[in-house]
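Bumping with the actual sequence this time:
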Amino acid sequence: MRILYFILFSLIGFSYATYSQVIFNSSNIPIISINTNGQQIPDEIRIVADMGIINNGEGNRNNISDPFNDYDGKISIEIRGSTSQAYPKKQYGFETQDSNGNNNNVSLLGLPPENDWILYAPYGDKSLIRVSSETL
């Protein structure tokens, strides 16, 4: 079973001379878990996957063992971009779906209801100059 964990954050102005692997089990910011049920995420043809968001609110720690409390449902997901698909850090586009596979407008992380979402990975834009201040 393949589960991808995404943490939504931006590191600006930090650099590390050494890298090491860490055990991830909690965060101060929301955790997004995407379970593709063993499928690879392709380009163009979206696959159906399960997504859950753990968001215990500002000032509270989010643990990967906590129940999904911001979203728990189906999505269809694909790799996003053209040139950026060659980068090691991928961008993903996904749509939230109801149990019948129809678009489902939902609010995620306090954002307005929508069914089309992007997990943005500005790998090629180290300065984040192309990102508007509203999205940071």
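The tokens above came from a reply further down the thread. Residues 3-10+23-123 form one domain.
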